[in-house]
């Protein structure tokens, strides 16, 4: 049984269908990258999976539990999914350390000392421990993203969602973040990542889901999608990218 | 009477002025926080009802509301003590204004942070308490200083319900000494001193809770 099973997921906004019957699985320890043209529904898909957006229809099973059911414990689900945003979304009134410990203390009810220990472990993993007392405003984009990843990892999620983790970064910082995500990939952290960054996709993915007009157009290994795919839309997309 | 003696005579009233200002400011803060929390966490109906309440409170002169509370409510069998009447009128009106300042500051809190809190599993109340409220308060400081100053400047209304604050003391002193220019100059100086004290206190609190780079983003 896959950790995440998505079946016929549909999301409409008014008359516009953004997701049109998306189906895929994500196994424990696997990394999948979702790519596709702008506006194809990639970010909406991630948000539907942890119900930041309510899916219109379809099924999302997480660890065997149906998460689209009205009785589903959405907040418990969200604690199992680490979410890293494009714009980092660090709490700007809190220090780096407090950003990481806040959910541990408030949601996991962890004693402060234990939460701090856990947070420092994750910050060290992201090479950010020395910035523990800094505020987000003083961090570079790359540093902010590393703190955001540490914050997500501290909750010991079953899966990490990345929503365009490198798109707000300059190329040098983006490469730093790719290296860190690649490290997580090599540690078999389960990852679902939306990106436009082909470099990131190649480095971290077991397979790429190619989304087009709200539908899964293809799902395959990076090398198969990148090397002259038979589908002209995919070939053209990656041709333009590479 | 010398100017020093006039100041000394007015000091007794200063305590009441400070008391009225602090109690009304505290009431305003409680009212504004209740309004903003209910607006943020309550449904659309609660939001609409509160919008209407704020609209009405902002439209009524403080003195009229004070008279309604102090002289009007006894007709319904409700005797309101003078200080409580000030809190229910000046405090409530000021709370309505303050809630609008909070509303603007709350809109300045990054939606991405609220979304991140939601994605982590925080309840809307936890997100409000832990993420939005601390930022909202910090962003509201300049507006809160203005509102606190307004409360102080409206505090002389307290004399109309029998509270012996500075203005009341000054009127009593004028009627016996006829030194109105010196007396009201002294009153003005005392209010200005109070205003400076408020500014210094706020500056201290602001420095204490300052976050590097917070307001500049």
From TrEMBL, chain A:
Membrane among keywords? yes
Give the record's membrane topology. Answer: Peripheral membrane protein
Gene Ontology molecular function: any one: ATP binding
Primary subcellular site in the record, as a coarse category: membrane
Domain of life assignment = Bacteria
List the subcellular locations: Cell membrane
Q: Does the keyword Transport apply?
A: yes
Q: Which family does it belong to?
A: Belongs to the ABC transporter superfamily.
Q: What is this protein called?
A: ABC transporter ATP-binding protein
The protein's organism comes out as Novosphingobium arvoryzae
From TrEMBL, chain B:
The protein's topology relative to the membrane is:
Multi-pass membrane protein
The main location class comes to membrane
- List where the protein spans the membrane: 12-38, 50-74, 80-98, 183-205
Task: Write out the GO biological process terms.
Answer: amino acid transport
Record domain ABC transmembrane type-1: where = 14-202
* The entry's keywords: Amino-acid transport, ATP-binding, Cell membrane, Membrane, Nucleotide-binding, Transmembrane, Transmembrane helix, Transport
GO molecular function ontology, one term from the record? ATP binding
| Gene Ontology CC terms, in alphabetical order | ATP-binding cassette (ABC) transporter complex
Report the subcellular localization: Cell inner membrane; Cell membrane
CDD domains in alphabetical order: TM_PBP2 (cd06261)
Family the entry assigns: Belongs to the binding-protein-dependent transport system permease family. HisMQ subfamily.
Family annotation (PANTHER family)? GLUTAMINE TRANSPORT SYSTEM PERMEASE PROTEIN GLNP, MEMBRANE COMPONENT OF AMINO ACID ABC TRANSPORTER
Provide the function of this protein. Answer: Part of the binding-protein-dependent transport system for glutamine; probably responsible for the translocation of the substrate across the membrane.
The protein depicted here goes by the name Polar amino acid ABC transporter ATP-binding protein
